[in-house]
Structures are given as structure tokens and as C-alpha cells.
Amino acid sequence: MYLLKPGGQVATEEKEAEEGSEGELGAEGSEEPRDGGTSVTNEKRTNLMWLIRKLCIVAKREAADSPKIPLKRTCIFKFLGAIAMDLGSERVKPFLPTIVAPLYRELNSTYAEQ
Questions:
Q1: Is 41 helix (H, G, I), strand (E, B) or coil?
Q2: Partners of 33 in the beta sheet?
Q3: Which spans in the chain are helix H?
Q4: 72, burial (CB in 10 Å: exposed 0-12, middle 13-18, buried 19+)
Q5: DSSP letter at 10?
Q6: Cα 4 from chain centroid?
Q7: Around Cβ 99, how many Cβ atoms within 10 Å?
Q8: Phi and psi dihedrals of 34, rounded to 5?
Q9: Backbone torsions φ then ψ of 32, nearest 5 degrees
């Protein structure tokens, strides 16, 4: 899995590796013409922002469904913290609004106390 920048840009090392692997994959990365002659890429790429958003959605749903059991949310927050520490202060800035929203909800909730 390649980790991409928030804008969807691949780092130079990853581009070279990707270009080398596209020839091996064959038709997976190729474009197929559809109605009207337009071409659409079949391959859907996963990036770090997508992963963080999905984890935050899981944390929000878990907080709504079972607020008294924080195990899954705790694991998600620890994982997000590890990602933030690994990225460093400069590279984590685009991801902070997405990460902070479920943390804010969790810290301000009174469900677990009831």
C-alpha cells in the first residue's frame, strides 16, 4: 500500500516503483474506453487521508452505538497517534482537522460516565 500526500500526489520513490509494477500488472492499471470514447481508470487508490477518514468514521459510529465500551475507539486513537508521531509535526498538519474531530467528541462526551 502506498501512502500518498493529502492531495493524492505520490512521492517520487513510489512513482518509480509504481511505474515498474504497472507493466507487470497488465490490465489492472489500464484505462478502458466507455460510452462516448472517454476513458476512466478502474484502479481506485488508497491513501493516508482515506485511511484516517475511515478510522474516524468507525470511531464516531462506535461512540454512537456503544458509548460505554471504549476499546475500539482507544485502539483507533492510539493508531492515529502513532501515525501522527511517525509523520512529524510538519507532515501531520493536513491531517489534524480530521484526527481532532473524533478526539474532541470523545473527550467531551458524558456517555461513558453515565
A1: strand
A2: 39
A3: 12-25, 48-65, 71-91, 96-108
A4: middle
A5: P
A6: 9
A7: 19
A8: -115, -165
A9: -115, 135
Are the C-beta atoms of residues 83 and 48 closer than 8 Å to each other? yes
Q: Are 87 and 42 in contact (CB under 8 A)?
A: no
With CA atoms as reference, report the closest residue to 10 among 52, 46, 34.
Answer: 46
Q: Which residues touch 73 (CB under 8 Å, ≥6 apart)?
A: 59, 62, 63, 102, 106
The residues pairing with 41 across neighbouring beta strands, listed in sequence order, are 31
pTM for this entry: 0.58
Query: 2-50, pLDDT tens digit by residue?
Result: 555 666 555 544 444 444 444 444 444 444 444 554 444 545 667 999 9
The SS3 assignment for 88 reads helix
